Amino acid sequence: MASAFIVRKNQYYDSLFLMGVNKRLLDQPGVTQSAVLMGSEANKQLLADIGFNLSALGSAGPNDLVVAVVGENQKVLDTTLDRFDEILNAGASEHPKSNLRTLPDGLQVKPKANLAVISIPGEYAAREARKALEANLHVFLFSDNVSIEEELDLKKLAFPKGLLVMGPDCGTSLIGGKGIGFANAVRRGKIGALGPSGTGLQEFTCQVHQAGQGISHAIGTGSHDLSDAIGGLTTFAAMDALEADPSTSVIVVISKPPGPKTLEKLIKRFESCKKHVVACFLGINPEILENRSGFHLAATIDDAVRLSLQILGVDEKPGSGERLDQVLKKECVGQSKEQVYLRGLFAGGTFCYQSQQILKMAGLEVFSNAPFEKQFSLSHPEKSRGHCVVDMGDDFYTRGKPHPMIDGTWRKQRILSEARDPSVAVILLDFILGYNSSLDPAGDLLEAIIEAKKIVSDRGGYLSVVASICGTDGDPQDLVLQSKMLEDAGVILFNSNARAVSFCVDLINTKENK
Amino acid sequence: MENNIEKLINEPLVAINLGLPGFAKSLEEQEVEVVQVDWRPPAGGDQEMIDILDDLL
Prior knowledge:
The complex is a heterodimer of chains A (514) and B (57). By secondary structure, chain A is an alpha/beta fold. Chain A has 18 helices and 19 strands. In chain A, the strands form five sheets. Chain A has a six-stranded parallel β-sheet, sandwiched between helices. In chain A, strand 4, helix 6 and strand 5 (138-141) form a beta-alpha-beta unit. In chain A, helix 1 packs across helix 4, helix 8 crosses helix 11 (301-311) and helix 12 crosses helix 18. The longest helix of chain A has 18 residues, at 441-458. The N and C termini of chain A lie far apart (53 Å). Chain B is an alpha+beta fold and 57 residues long. Chain B has helices at 4-10, 21-29, 47-56; strands at residues 14-19, 33-37. A two-stranded parallel sheet of chain B has the order 1-2. In chain B, helix 2 (21-29) links the parallel strand 1 (14-19) and strand 2. Chain B is flat and about 40 Å long. The chains are: A alpha/beta (514), B alpha+beta (57). At the A-B interface, helix 5, strand 4, helix 6, helix 7 and strand 8 of A face helix 1, strand 1, helix 2, strand 2 and helix 3 of B.
């Protein structure tokens, strides 16, 4: 094996673009490993962690492009690096150019701007968000790796100005029907939603749309907002706005359990709210909320949808239980005795979390890299054990690599490795459509699903693949086609994670009782 | 306290997008007025220099 670096001074690209370049570089014949990134300290550490010798990098800095390649021999490296401009430019045409470099540049072009959408490396993000707030802009802060102290400072700066800070680490919002970040095309209606759970908000808004209703606004708060350190500053500001908004009739909060002090304040706020409030605190101990009134408590995202529709006087259409029973019986045929375990591989963190809650309620012990309870932590994210669910959007998988919502590479590999484990009976997946997600999430995993089923059937067994799909008929991907592709490959598909998990529970129980 | 948030949710969005161009593209597709800023680290990413610049401006 041979390795080489090139450093391009003052050539800056965003991380998502460079991940695409890296993918093309890895496709070159004889290349076994590569990294294409900006020379920030964090990225240099990442290169060192994956075994590159940093001494060759010299003084590369955050504005310098670094290309690191490992190949079968020196000739492979020479050929690949000679072609690097071609590989780089193959994606550049998809990357719209702008001559603007700073927030003030942007403000000169759009002096009436009311929102800054910020998705730059975390170490610089708070600085730019502060500037945006000082210019009286609301902020959607997608960047993560912003410290709690910086987050608190930003939110304290925003509060007296009556400005909203969605984030940091905010994946989605729908403001006036317009999706920001990872969001779905959802019709407008009377339900307002808010919370830190990005994919939770996405599934909630999609289900409301599918039920024929709509969303007034859905406000992402960022993943730490309901911690006691931040105290729900964005949540309270968003609640005030939704309460005052004449188009909103019901307010729904979707979150993991808030910090205890913040939860107490939040419940008091629910009690004083003039509108109906539905609270979905995934995984909360219901005893904590016993004898509390003034809001409707939902155990799952599905439950939050049902309660919101009920408040609006709309009945949800019941599903076909009979048809599901038939599918269940069919799925159990052909599985071998050794096949006993469920393996969930998720792009959506909220889905991984909610799955654990439902599996626990069903009496199953389930392990995870993002465990519901610490004693069920996997020793390593790549080492499955018993029934287990893996959040593949976790830092372990996304450090320097694209998120599974936009790239299926890691999940494909994991699907195949789970299929090679003779104890696996069911693989549970999620597919998330919408703006900025992969344009073909089903296609990304399809070959791996077909191959996984074949691996198990060649061994004399049968592999069930169960999945949820989160999307609407207005999304850039074709929901009908995406669903059909999966169903044609033998995937048992639901439009909700909770229903997909419940089906898996039935599958496991039916098998156990056989 | 003035309430700009109520204004935000009742008026058309006009956005400045710093970073991932896909975010600007998806807003454009939804007919949101947006401008893309191809942001890059100030002062070559030198934190000390950034602090000095912030103090000066």
